[in-house]
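Input record (one chain):
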Amino acid sequence: MKYLIFSTSLLASATAFADDPHIERVVVFGKQSDLIGESISASEGVIGTGDIAQRPLLRPGEILEFVPGMVVTQHSGSGKANQYFLRGFNLDHGTDFSISLDGMPVNMRTHGHGQGYTDLNFITPEFIQRIDYQKGPYRAMQGDFSVAGSANFSLMSSFDQPFGKLEIGENGFLRTVAATNLAVGESNLAVGGEWQQYDGPWTDIDEDIAKTSAFARFRQATDDSILHITFLGYDNSWNSADQIPLRAVQSGLIDELGSLDPTLGGESNRYSLSVNWQSADWMVNAYAISSELNLFSNFTYFLDNPEAGDQFEQVDDRAIYGGTLTRFHSTTVGDSHVHLTGGLEWRYDDISEVGLYRTNQRVRQSPVRRDSVDEYSVAAFLQVDVDITDNLIGHVDIRHDYLAVDVNSDLSANSGDDSDNITSLKGGLSYILNDAWQAYVNVGQSFHSNDARG
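The corresponding structure, as predicted from the sequence alone:
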């Protein structure tokens, strides 16, 4: 599926006025980066660690609500991926908003629960250094799932000082986070961990969340390059209260915090190793990810099976490998400065099982469908930024993606292979009116891939 998005916008930097003794003073904590002359649109920005530290978060996915216009909700247990909404887009679990972590993709292709499934529960907010976000498909470095926009999380390379945190709350909430730095020769190893438990406010179940996360990042800097090697580990299990029929509450069968199926929930884990190397002219990313999800749901309770119920299990077990090679180059054409960013991107999803089972109290009764999928993609992109004059800036981007899939199903009629490719064009102009105002116009194309199973 392909989309064409067009926007015009105007960006203004904040202006401070002298204090008026007759006006009540209201202190607002926050940060606004002045991106005039640097950004290609008014709808992109940077979120720093100071911004994140000032806002209390109920769940990790709420980090994305720092993106203006983003709404993050939770509908079925604290361990499941959130649902996202942005600028009129219902993104479901991430279908049209691309998220990466230091170059590693977070959106899942051909996922057991939904295309583009984006689970942010493995991220510890205290370990985030910055978030770079873009609303709109105006950059060629962003490909699959980036119709509505994109965001890249960057993790800490070192901590200002060792720290530990203990949080205690209602309904059995307990969370602890700790991190420190370890010297490795002249390099640094930042390590940290998070553990959380929570029972929730429900009358007939305990969420019984048991979440553990681990983080380790090695940083080595030379005069002309920086190397990062990052390990992330995450394991979680939970029970969940789900949507309930109003008539069950009105009849007194259950209360507003009750459940009709107390055995819903899931288990999830994610482990990754990534390498990032960057110099003034080159950037190289490579990663390996292992991800598993077993999710138990029941949307219709006893509609299809009045005796055993309609509970089902969605399974996703995969390994992801990939990387990006990027080249930066600047030159002069006449009186104009030209900045080129070009690169190649590769990703391979080795999905050993993506399946759906009928279950009863988390015990499998019969399979609905079981598949294994090989899905890979390669892409080439080029971004050309031109300083036409001191005030007029233009950019022209092009990206070409090739995707191929091979599906092996338990039913031969559902097996097969296919491939396709797509070219996306993007461009825009911006004009710096003065030190406080810049006007933008952008147009761009992007896409999201579809589930390989059809």
